[in-house]
Amino acid sequence: MIWDDFLNSEWHDWRGSGKYEDRLLNPYQLQSFMNRHQFLVNLPLDQEDIKYLQQLRSFLKEFVQYIVAGGTSPGWRIEELNRWMSEELVLRELHSNEEGNYTLSFRTMNPGLKGVAADIAASFATTLSEGESTRIRICDNPDCLWIYYDDTRNRSKRYCDDKMCGNLMKVRRFRAKKKLQSDTSDG
């Protein structure tokens, strides 16, 4: 999804080194994001444009934190999300293929940074409107904080990646338990 890829442009080292990177400031990472989602934007962005995207990211991150915490009355957040989406007009087009299947596509009328922001906001709004907000998660590893969509059947995924953060947290719990046992047997 576009929105979670965008939110994770704020990267934290999941191993706990304290390293942090705002990938919106990294021209290669930003270009990669734009290419992945087929956004047509002239790069590099100036500081004002980067600040604009950072504001959207901060807003969406706060909205995700609100949802993950169990918030049920989004109030002003809905108005703000609608404001971000209204930044760009969208043309809807219906297409059919030779098998008789139909697809609906959306094309921004004036591609650019505001269109990118509107598409990111719309991606998040689509997830919410499809009733999938309970699948939005923040990794339980406090050093990671990766935002992801839990696509498991029973909706019980706790870590962005079981092989990285999941294993790391199991090792940390095991070591803490051993240390506690060691401390109680010594005392």
Automatic annotation (TrEMBL):
Coiled coil: none annotated. This is Zinc finger CGNR domain-containing protein. It comes from Paenibacillus solani. Residues 135-178 form the Zinc finger CGNR domain. It comes from the Bacteria. It holds the Pfam family ABATE.
